[in-house]
């Protein structure tokens, strides 16, 4: 486990692998369960309140936490560890160049008001973008809920569509997703500008 960002309010830690998950990763998997199973009622693999699948064996994670709780996080899948699920959704002319990473399972704890959720999401995304740039993952993809993609764009995240919109879930729980490619260097610049504008 590696601390990669710190502020008076939050820590962001990076973890690799899930064979013997530490408590902070277990809490993130419980948060994923609340997000995807309890709130969105998706039929995803879940064991005793923990949501995980076979891809977690090959993943690393960025987890947002304070001194008492896990507040959010995301999963990172790398081309050197597995085939990216988003590859099946890309338009035929789109080619993934290695090394590349797919961001998935983005979630923020909903036990706070909307403004605080946006703030936590921004901290997570800002740290993620800086991490991806530092690791030279300029090729970064996601199959993401379309409303969330629009929120990220308003924050300053630069992305382009690389596949057709489609749905996950059934009935009232059906949601629109879109495969995207993030422009990591431009996103880092845009987020820095946003932080600079917010300073007194």
The CATH class designation is Alpha Beta
Beta content comes to 25-35%
Helix content: 25-40%
Write the element-wise H/E pattern from the N-terminal end onward: EEHEEEEEHEHEEEH
The tally of beta strands, per DSSP, is: 11
Report the oligomer. single chain
What structural class do the secondary elements suggest? Answer: alpha+beta
Which fold name fills CATH's third level, the topology?
Aminopeptidase
Rg calculated over all Cα atoms? 16 Å
Compute the number of structural domains.
1
User: What is the CATH homology-level superfamily?
Assistant: Gcn5-related N-acetyltransferase (GNAT)
Question: Sheet bearing the most strands, described?
Answer: 9 strands, mixed
CATH architecture: 3-Layer(aba) Sandwich
- Indicate the mean pLDDT: 87
Gross morphology: globular
Number of helices: 4
Distance between the termini: 34 Å
Catalogue the unreliable spans.
none
Describe the structure.
The chain is an alpha+beta fold and 200 residues long. Helices cover 32% and strands 31% of the residues. The strands form two sheets. Strands 1, 2, 5, 6, 7, 8, 9, 10 and 11 form a nine-stranded mixed beta sheet that branches. The protein has a two-stranded antiparallel sheet with strand order 3-4. A hairpin with a 4-residue loop joins β5 and β6. It is globular.
